[in-house]
Amino acid sequence: MSEKKLYVLKNLTKKNVYCTEFWVNPETDESFKIEEMFRWGETTLSLTDEEAAEIRSDLENGFPVSTYEYEIEDQHLDDGCALDFYAEDELLVEKVEEIFDNYTYSGLEEEGFFCDDAEVMYHGECELEEVNE
Fold it and tell me: What's the pTM value of the predicted model, to 2 decimals?
């Protein structure tokens, strides 16, 4: 395995970075997703040469890049501009939207939900540059 180096992944056009949070309530067995769109994002990743080549290939071929499977050193998402809720049950979506509208994240937690996982995806025109220390 090759030595890891630091790289910065960032979008070059606005509104193409998405963070999806996966929320669950173990007591009620309910689950839903919150997807937030950001105008700008910058993620510092610790990558091998092979991983960096994989990301560059995906970017060149127009595929979205998930930071989930890589080692994240730092991440900054800026200027959230859209927030959507998704679940298999539309009544659950209405319920969590109402809780969120009134009490934000603390209201979801008070109802027994917690964020179990999250994934950040970069779409569209992005760049990956090695950090020169």
Answer: 0.90
C-beta separation of 25 from 112 below 8 A: yes
Burial class (CB in 10 A: 0-12, 13-18, 19+), 133: exposed
Mean pLDDT of 83-96: 97
Per-domain boundaries in the chain: 5-128
Q: Which 3 state secondary structure label does DSSP give 97?
A: helix
Strands (DSSP E) along 1-133, which ranges? 5-11, 17-25, 30-47, 65-66, 71-86, 114-122, 126-130
Per DSSP, 67 falls in state S
Distance CA 111, CA 124 (A): 36
* Close Cβ partners of 94 (under 8 Å, ≥ 6 residues apart): none
Q: How far, in Å, CA of 95 to CA of 131, rounded?
A: 44
User: Which residue in this structure is represented by tokens 């800026």?
Assistant: 78
Region 28-52: mean pLDDT is: 97
